[in-house]
């Protein structure tokens, strides 16, 4: 049985491919197992029927997915809290001037960049649930301390530490997605937990509206907001420690039989579970793979847009469009709901069409249209509603990020190679976010027209890059298909810790 050619005219249905190949028993020779996490929980002769597969997925979604969602919600709340506080008096109360507010965003992302390489290496070594749980509790503690700060330098220092700690969550959640879910399930899973970016807008908007009314108190309203969110982070971190298993073989909440089946259900991913050993050959291959550099720049370009729009959304609605502070807080809530719907809708379309990169490219069009509207329409009482709608549709670029991450998660194999690839991808994500707020210079306020012109150039570069990534993956699949003509795929290298280059059975998806 050979795979169908995955070029633009003949795209294989990934779910059907799973059903055809994952459950095919091999001829009986001993398979090579290199993964240190698998242990005794593998049997390549097992046949998993669809009913059993659905039951296993329900178990996983009960124990794993809620914790992933909680973790990302905590991260989104922590990162975005200053955006809400920015129109609650934060800048005046702390003495921020010029680019000080933009620096609070940049410094956080510098902390994330510094933490990414060690965090990704620790992801390879440490139990994932415990690692992210401790990180979440610690960053909640840092945020709690920041809630009492009224000094710009102290806030900047704490934002850097917050970034260091939050560098853990992205790599851990992506590794968990690969460890527990099949290829065709991963886009919905990654987009599912990233919808918490939208939930953050809803929750922060409600809390900001409430705390804005705090008067004649020892602390300002924005300080109470930060302290409350820090407490939520600590509670969610503690819950993850007790509820989420570190991996299928380590899941004490599941039976021995189910642990085995959960390992076998992801065999067709050809990406294994986990290998704590550093492989120099894989590291060398990673640095020679152009795909990894292309994914890095894709994340940079994406977050140059989304990071700035996210950090300055409240200020744009308030100062550029002319809505008052209270209405600006409330208007961020439908924006969050729209973002959540957008992320899930785009990932669903990508899963159904099997055309992830084309969906990513399609999401760029509303952003281009919305940017043109903001550039050409003058704010006023009669136009601010239209400007707000244009700004809402510009959130489409936000839905690209989880899809780009799934392009990375599904097209890189080999545990050491994945560590480097994911580190590069998240450094690109962090780097773009770090620079993004600097594209909004204070002297360009309140409409930031020059910022929007810069965004137009970024859109062009992004579109060209994503087309190039797709062409590269199509070319690689054609070479793979030619090499395995006449072969029957049994995925016997699934846990042999082979890279996508080394494993003839590996199929690229895009």
Which secondary structure elements does this structure contain, and how are they paired or packed?
Blueprint: H1 14-21, H2 50-63, H3 65-85, H4 90-94, H5 100-125, H6 128-146, H7 152-166, H8 169-180, H9 186-194, H10 196-211, H11 221-243, H12 256-264, H13 280-288, H14 290-311, H15 313-320, H16 325-353, H17 356-362, H18 364-376, H19 384-393, H20 400-411, H21 415-436, H22 449-483
Helix pairs in contact: 3-6, 3-9, 3-10, 3-11, 5-7, 5-21, 6-7, 6-8, 6-11, 8-20, 9-16, 9-20, 10-11, 10-16, 13-21, 14-20, 14-21, 14-22, 15-16, 16-17, 17-20, 17-22, 18-19, 18-22
Key features?
single chain; 510 residues; mainly alpha; Growth Hormone, Chain: A; 22 helices; 0% strand; disordered N terminus
Structural overview:
This protein is mainly α and 510 residues long. The chain has a single domain (65-244, 280-483), classed as MFS general substrate transporter like domains (Growth Hormone, Chain: A, Up-down Bundle). It is 67% helix and 0% strand. The chain contains 22 helices and no strands. The chain has helices at residues 14-21, 50-63, 65-85, 90-94, 100-125, 128-146, 152-166, 169-180, 186-194, 196-211, 221-243, 256-264, 280-288, 290-311, 313-320, 325-353, 356-362, 364-376, 384-393, 400-411, 415-436, 449-483. The chain is globular, with a radius of gyration of 23 Å. The chain starts with 13 loop residues before the first helix and ends in a 27-residue tail after the last helix. Its main location: membrane. It is a multi-pass membrane protein. It is found in: Membrane. Residues 64-474 form the Major facilitator superfamily (MFS) profile domain. GO terms for molecular function: cysteine transmembrane transporter activity.
């Amino acid at each position: 049985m050979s795979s169908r050619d995955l070029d633009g005219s003949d795209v294989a249905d990934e779910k059907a491919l799973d059903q055809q190949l994952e459950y095919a028993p091999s001829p009986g020779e001993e398979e090579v197992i290199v993964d240190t996490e698998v242990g005794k929980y593998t049997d390549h002769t097992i046949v998993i029927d669809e009913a059993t597969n659905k039951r296993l997925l329900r178990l996983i979604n009960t124990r794993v997915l809620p914790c992933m969602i909680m973790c990302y919600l905590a991260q989104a709340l922590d990162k975005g809290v200053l955006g809400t506080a920015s129109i609650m008096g934060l800048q005046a109360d702390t003495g921020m001037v010029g680019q000080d507010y933009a620096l609070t965003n940049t410094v956080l992302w510098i902390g994330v960049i510094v933490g990414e390489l060690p965090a990704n290496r620790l992801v390879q070594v440490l139990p994932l649930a415990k690692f992210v749980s401790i990180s979440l509790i610690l960053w909640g503690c840092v945020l709690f301390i920041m809630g009492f700060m009224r000094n710009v330098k102290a806030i900047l220092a704490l934002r850097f530490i917050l970034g260091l700690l939050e560098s853990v969550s992205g790599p851990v959640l992506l590794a968990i997605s690969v460890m527990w879910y099949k290829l065709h399930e991963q886009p919905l899973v990654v987009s599912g937990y990233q919808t918490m970016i939208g939930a953050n807008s809803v929750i922060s908007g409600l809390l900001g509206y409430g705390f804005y009314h705090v008067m004649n108190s020892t602390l300002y309203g924005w300080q109470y907001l930060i302290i409350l969110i820090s407490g939520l982070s600590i509670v969610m971190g503690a819950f993850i420690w007790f509820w989420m298993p570190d991996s299928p073989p380590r899941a004490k909440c599941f039976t021995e039989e189910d642990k085995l089946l959960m390992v076998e259900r992801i065999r067709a991913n050809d990406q294994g579970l986990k290998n704590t050993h550093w492989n120099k050959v894989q590291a060398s291959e990673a640095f020679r793979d152009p795909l990894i550099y292309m994914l890095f720049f894709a994340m940079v370009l994406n977050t140059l847009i989304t990071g700035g729009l996210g950090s300055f959304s409240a200020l744009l609605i308030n100062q550029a469009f002319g809505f008052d502070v209270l209405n600006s807080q409330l208007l961020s809530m439908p924006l969050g709901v729209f973002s959540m719907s957008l992320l899930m809708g785009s990932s669903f379309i990508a899963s159904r069409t099997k055309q992830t990169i084309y969906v990513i490219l399609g999401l760029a069009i509303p952003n281009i249209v919305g940017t043109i509207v903001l550039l050409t329409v003058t704010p006023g009482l009669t136009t601010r509603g239209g400007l707000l709608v244009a700004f809402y549709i510009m959130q489409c670029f936000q839905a690209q990020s989880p899809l780009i991450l799934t392009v990375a998660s599904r097209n890189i194999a080999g545990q050491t190679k994945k560590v480097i690839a994911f580190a590069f991808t998240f450094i690109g994500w962090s780097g773009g976010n770090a620079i993004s707020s600097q594209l909004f210079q204070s002297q360009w306020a309140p409409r930031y027209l020059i910022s929007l012109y810069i965004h137009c150039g970024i859109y062009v570069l992004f579109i060209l890059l994503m087309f190039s990534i797709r062409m590269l993956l199509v070319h690689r699949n054609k070479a793979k298909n030619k090499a395995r003509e006449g072969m029957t795929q049994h995925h016997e290298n699934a846990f042999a810790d082979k890279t996508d280059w080394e494993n003839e059975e590996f199929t690229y998806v895009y």
